[in-house]
């Protein structure tokens, strides 16, 4: 591991957990989340009944009910396809299945397809040395050390390179940092999952073609499949991240899963060779048992005991294909999983493994019941009524007569954006100054103004249904759906509970505003929760400082202290002083 990178990582960790100051990034980056084109120019798949494709509506309802009952999975949306048609889709909470989603590592499988196309075109081979592709960009000593790392080693996560996503925070030249990294294990044999292997595949596409990954795939994959609404984040050098950073609609991820299912053919046209896909969906690396029930192919996971393939991203982003029957399940979530440890996989495999007929008799009763149930999963459920509406309005109006100014030493690190999203986007809160509440009777929602040091953002939280808001964070625009309800704690203190889903991401903010006599206390949680964050951060830091060469630098990191501070970052309690409003502007409605 590069000592400078480790030192920068240590510095960044300490900055991030210092709640008394806004986090200053080690390397300032331009906004990473690109503008995502609308889907109008794309092609939508046909929607048909489950029974017309041989799947009972009753089976799907039982499956979704089990998903909903397991709160640890925090599933956001589900799309089920068969035969290139969508037989079912649903949203949970404030989510929207038509929105392009952060795919995290699920997009690694798409990067693999680009490599397969390069091989099909004769521009690359599996045996080619990765270092040789970057001739002139790799130092002589590093080239000698790395020369036997092949393209296939990158595809199968057997390069041994330890330069990872955490270290990327302290580097602007990821290619150079990759080739100057240490190696652990035996090249070509030891499985060591590392997203920078996939980044290097993206860099290889650019090096071989002079065309960036998304542009290369545009005419070869996305346009033929009718995929128009997507965007891919880039590294500081302008190369797509490859192993993460892709936003794409669940339906379009399902199209790509269908292409793989069909051996590279889409609507009668060959897109990628069957030969490459057979290799890509065959196990080349045996994975540890604790990762889950899938081995590893060419950036595609392969069932250990089932005839399945999987595109898998952290926090619950999945495209799971059943080759026995052609069913594909696409799911997005916001849970605490890095791989496939949760119950989602066992439940999905149990439900959809096995033979299904091509078609069964229509079952209108169970299909209607499924539709009603699916509609109930979203905020408000389509049938929610605001009990004692006028009384709730009166209580809220009374609470909202004042504004609330931050009166807490930890306010400088607190912001509206979920802390995990701040970390992944290198886009940090500038510090909260005050929060203001207004009741919008016309829209039946609460308008919450979060005044941070850089700007004021207004969030709309519906009292009947989720309200959507587009918010800009330093040039990165996020779609947010929020829902509010008024309650009281055990002491009778009024509490406004607001859940804000950042619908393009796995992340959500959950605010509890306690209105006391002369102050307001804001307890802010988020999904994924603090337990996941503390464990993951501990694992990453422990791995980063495991080498003897950097053991002295490890003295900068006290993990007990870091865990305590992370809890304050990810579940802060901020005190605000109640102040009279400067003007008594009449509430609208």
Please describe what this structure looks like.
This protein folds into two domains: 319 residues, DD-peptidase/beta-lactamase superfamily (Beta-lactamase, 3-Layer(aba) Sandwich); 151 residues, Calycin beta-barrel core domain (Lipocalin, Beta Barrel), CATH 2.40.128. The C terminus is likely disordered. Helix 2 packs antiparallel against helix 13. It has 18 helices and 22 strands. It is α+β, with helices and mostly antiparallel strands. Strands 13-14-15-16-18-19-20-21-22 form a nine-stranded mixed beta barrel. The chain is globular, with a radius of gyration of 25 Å.
Terminal Cα span: 60 Å
CATH class type of the largest domain: Alpha Beta
> What portion of residues is helical?
25-40%
Task: Label the overall shape.
Answer: globular
Biggest β-sheet description: 9 strands, mixed, barrel
* Strand neighbour order, sheet with most strands: 13-14-15-16-18-19-20-21-22
Mean pLDDT: 91
Query: CATH topology of the largest domain, anyone?
Result: Beta-lactamase
Q: Count the domains.
A: 2
Q: Over the alpha carbons, how many angstroms does the gyration radius reach?
A: 25 Å
CATH superfamily of the largest domain: DD-peptidase/beta-lactamase superfamily
CATH architecture of the largest domain: 3-Layer(aba) Sandwich
The computed structural class is: alpha+beta
Count helical runs. 18
Poorly predicted spans: 584-589
How many β-strands, per DSSP?
Answer: 22
Strand content: 15-25%
